[in-house]
Structure prediction request, 256 residues.
Amino acid sequence: MESFMNGFSLEGKIAMVSGGGGGIGSTACLAFAEAGADIVITDLTIEQAEATAEKVWSSYGKKALAIKCDVSKPADVDRLGEEIRKNCKRLDVAFNNAGIAFEANAEDVTLEQWNRCIGINLTGVFLTAQMAGRIMLEQKSGSIINTASMSGHVVNVPQKHCMYNASKAGVIQLTKSLAVEWGPRGVRVNSISPGYINTVLSNSSNPWYNEWLQNSVMKRIGETSELAGVLIYLASDASSFTNGADIVIDGGYTIR
Ligand SMILES: NC(=O)c1ccc[n+]([C@@H]2O[C@H](COP(=O)([O-])OP(=O)(O)OC[C@H]3O[C@@H](n4cnc5c(N)ncnc54)[C@H](O)[C@@H]3O)[C@@H](O)[C@H]2O)c1
Prediction:
């Protein structure tokens, strides 16, 4: 009998996660490892990446390589690609997830702030997707997942961060563009758009927290574990005909 669940396996695959030392990225590393993959974990600080690598190994016995990389710096991303080629010989999954958020009124945003946000959230996703895409196109296979946000679809209130919203809308359209170019060559590209998820970026100590809950449909924010199923789906062959999709996981926040 045909097994539908086998399609979700990542056994024998190599998965790279950027921002793998942080909330969503760290959970993604553990989820991919439980599904069978060995993991390449990158983050701004090597200590954060190494902490996740230790959890991957101790929890699932999967190999985990920690690499320091600032995704907004082309030289760092080039080096990351070289390390992956040298140590892993291939790359099956790239979760381009590193991102930052901060608030500033539109009339006060400095060019430095704008460039920093776009540089990490949009250019960083492009650079890591391009690095992964080059390897995957040679293999004629691979799955790229980019982290967008519900802020790429709607303007969240009351916080003001036009540069963040613009960066995430850019990720959604970048994802579709790459999906059209690379899909025919065996490389699928999709994005996720989380709503508020409990990490250092969004949590109960945020001054807007109660307003977020009031505005939400489910009257709560999400946990990183609630993204794991979608991430395993997109990373694996279970999603073999899913390309250029943006999957919103926001508890219904953006539907009204
Ligand atoms: N938490 C939320 O509510 C939420 C909602 C929607 C989208 N997102 C997006 O999810 C992604 C992960 O966010 P999170 O909530 O886990 O935040 P987080 O701060 O816990 O994790 C982000 C990780 O990215 C790393 N990072 C930051 N700049 C980097 C750079 N230049 N190069 C490499 N690594 C860098 C950080 O060190 C950190 O480990 C981000 O792209 C964020 O915009 C988060």
Summary: DSSP finds seven helices and seven strands in the chain.
